[in-house]
Amino acid sequence: MINVWKPGLLLSFSFSQFYEFTKVAKQLNFDKFFEYSPDGNRVVILSTPFPDICLKFTRAELHDFVHAIDEAMYMHKVYELVHN
């Protein structure tokens, strides 16, 4: 099971759900899908496997999130090598 932590939010995924979520997050084109939030900032909305939970990111936040996901995928691969 993979856990993704953001302050105030903990989502748990099976590895297959996490892998699919990762693909979607990495392919999300900010410039193509942004919208304006009520405060006027450009943001994108990323759905999760949980229908009532969506994540909102500015460009910088999305970049940091994708970077964190890449690190999680890398560590999962290391874990598989060590334990298999």
At a glance:
The chain has 84 residues and is an alpha+beta fold. The chain has one domain.
Beta strands, count: 5
What separation lies between the terminal Cα atoms? Answer: 16 Å
Structural class: alpha+beta
Q: What summary fits the major beta sheet?
A: 3 strands, antiparallel
Order of helices and strands: EEHHEEEH
Radius of gyration: 14 Å
Task: Give the neighbour order of strands across the main sheet.
Answer: 3-4-5
Query: What average pLDDT do the residues reach?
Result: 87
The portion of residues assigned to helices is 40-55%
> What is the domain tally?
1
Give the low-pLDDT segments. Answer: none
Strand % is 25-35%
What is the tally of helical segments? 3
User: What's the shape?
Assistant: elongated
Key features?
84 residues; alpha+beta; three-stranded antiparallel sheet; two-stranded antiparallel sheet; 5 strands; 50% helix
